[in-house]
Amino acid sequence: MPQSIPEPEFDELYRELILDHYRNPRHSEPLADADVVAEGYNPLCGDEVELRIDFKNGSVSDLSFGGRGCSISRASGSIMTDLVIGKPVADVRKLSELFNKMMTDPEAEVPEELGDLEALQGVAKFPVRVKCATLAWHTLEDGLKQRDEGGHAVRHEE
Amino acid sequence: MTIDTKRIREDFPILKREVHGKPLVYLDNAATTQKPQVVIDALVEYYSSYNANIHRGIHALAEEATGKYEATRQKVADFIGAPDASNIVFTRNTTESINLVAQAWGRKFLSAGDEIVLSTMEHHSNLVPWQILAKEKGLTLRFIDIDDDGQLVAADIERYIGEKTKLVAITHMSNVLGTINPVREIADRAHQHGALVLLDGAQSVPHLPVDVQELDCDFLAFSAHKMLGPTGVGVLYARKELLEEMDPFMSGGEMIRRVELEESTWNDVPWKFEAGTPNIGDVCAFSASLDYLSDLGMENVRAHEIELVQEAVRRLQNVPGITIYGPESAASKGGVVAFNIEDIHPHDLGTVLDRHGVAIRAGHHCAQPLMKRLDVVATGRASFYVYNEPTEFDALIEGIEAAARLFRAPVHTGA
Ligand SMILES: Cc1ncc(COP(=O)(O)O)c(C=O)c1O
Q1: How high is the ipTM of this complex?
Q2: CA of A88, closest CA in chain B: separation in Å?
């Protein structure tokens, strides 16, 4: 890390955990024959997200995350895959809700369930970057809705 | 080099400030430029010594303000080689100038089946107003594409400008690629087919010598804030006959001659297009920016930016994983360098550079179709002006190197 960057908010934005997920994204290999494919797009900054989701017995059994975007959007999606795989859909929805809440309040206590997502709390202090962090989650929500409605593919636009 | 940046920098108070503890390196001039003290003083002088509404009062202040406002109109005309001050309409910005033409000329004179020729490198300002008009009137939009060097494809110019073309609306200089387009040739071809030419001069007028009679354009739009002037002032140049036959854009006070309850008649041009109290203070201050640039000489400004672009490209070329967009030759390019660096998203780069005191632009630069054409989601962009000097690129390169250390996966060298 360059020593020339002392400001606290900057370190809060680019936490080591975020950089690690950005450099080495988890579950980035696209799932073949996924049950639902959800694409997300933010025309303002050009971020693109592709989620491929498999379901089994009411849970998210597997999930891949791909696309193009900045470190914040990539890290957010990568951490999401780690957290969500194996969880019942209802729990995933709850996580999404908690995450969105965290992104609107940089001072609030971070609930334990959010695990590594806590690393993204500093993003809430950079209003222009919040959408980078939430795109993957909004796309996931659309993917879950799509499953409920019996569809296969969905496209979300911020 | 006849531009003495050491002396020029003394004129710009903002260049003395620090950002995050580092000297400010301002490389976002295509978005807006900084203002010299003389412009700031002119603004203060207006409000502290001759503030009044224009064209109405019969008192001394109103006369002074009107005199200064109208003298600035003449100065603008001289700056771009317009035949007369009446060719110059003051607006809020380039965007409003283009909308004025779309509404006041396009709505009146265009009809279903007519074609407007644009290019894939247009700023949204010179695209969206035509999309709206096309929808309303049933017009067809044609797009001249760019080649791999970021230049307009000559075959497309020939193919699309033809019998059905009523208007060619094109940027003189791209705000992303920096490409300086062959607008005189385009104007010649358009006029052969009876079409008019609107130039988006938002980037060209601040950075190149521009003469509307030499370029033979029918409309030219630009913004004061991109040429050392205040925000809130734009210019529309148009040929006088066109202004006379166009409908008003907005209506109300100032733009009328006689008003009766049921009907009104319009003021002479250009006032017909300046409804309500205009931005008097900023127009008067704009006068000082025009003087400043004229004293430097636009030929010299251009020569200075060619040197800066050459040096910036020379330094940036050595950055591992960099792609630079736009013409390779600095002679075909204004003072703009757009680029991407592998593994580093432009927004992340912009955030890191900001910590080094370096202001660049990161994003789509209001040119989403161009981003799509280049197959990128966004780019970084460094853009220059009269006060920039090659030594400032040290901070730019340092910041880029810091970003690379931050965002690149460490190279695993095996055993
Ligand atoms: C080529 C070009 N056209 C139009 C504009 C719009 O200018 P303004 O925002 O001043 O209306 C800009 C600048 O943003 C530009 O670079």
Answers
A1: 0.85
A2: 33
